[in-house]
Amino acid sequence: MMGVTERVWGALTSMIKLEDRVVRQNEALKSQQAKIENLTERVIRLEAQLELLTSAAMVKRLARE
Length: 65
Prior knowledge:
There is one protein chain. The protein is rod-shaped. The chain is built from one helix and no strands. It has one helix at 2-64. The chain is mainly alpha-helical.
C-alpha cells in the first residue's frame, strides 16, 4: 500500500511542478509578445518617418530643377 501511495504522491508532485512551469512559460510568452508589439509599433513609426523624409527630399529636389 505504501508503494502505491508514494507513486500517487510522486505523480501529483510532478503534475504540480509541470503546471508551475506552464504558468511561468505563459507569463514569459506574454512578456515577449508585449515586447514584439512594442517593437512593431516603433518600426511602423520609423517607416512613416522615412517615407515622409524621402517624399520631402524628392519635393525639394524637384523644386530646384
